[in-house]
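agent> Task received from the user: take the single chain below, predict its 3D structure, and emit structure tokens. No templates, no multimer pairing.
agent> Plan: (1) validate residues, (2) run structure prediction, (3) serialize to tokens, (4) report one or two observations.
agent> Step 1 OK, no nonstandard residues flagged.
tool_call: predict_structure(input=
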Amino acid sequence: MRIAAGLSESWLEPAAEIPVIRSAAGCPRGYLSAGMSRTLRKAANRLAADGRTAVPRFSTDAGQIRGLLPQLEQVYRQRDHVHGRTSDLDDVARQQTWRYRVGDLADAGVLELATLEIDGQLAAYTLGIHDDPTYRLLEGRFVTGWARYSP
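)
tool_result: status=success, residues=151
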């Protein structure tokens, strides 16, 4: 498994297989419910009506990912705090574990960072791993101030 290869001081333990739902459509749209499709249309309409520009970006470059870690941490924490929760990243040991995990996976070349910028500002991010033929989403967060656009 590619995720195990990118984690130092870690090992892969055998486990029961996790059920997977596959789509014959072969594209992301095949996985979207009617409600999700409606949400995406509404978000696109709101962006257009408000004259905003949304730009998605994808990177597997370890240097780029490491360079964005402070911003990702800020989004991670802010999202937890807005919901009245203590963030895992408020704890120094957990924050360091998170940084090592993201950094090790990026250095191994298995991590993909997807960001969405609205008007040049980070609005959301996800961290994922291509583990052919599966795409594994590790985490995703969005900036609450951009919630109107369902980033």
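agent> Step 4: summary for the user.
The first strand starts at residue 54 and ends at 59.
agent> Done.
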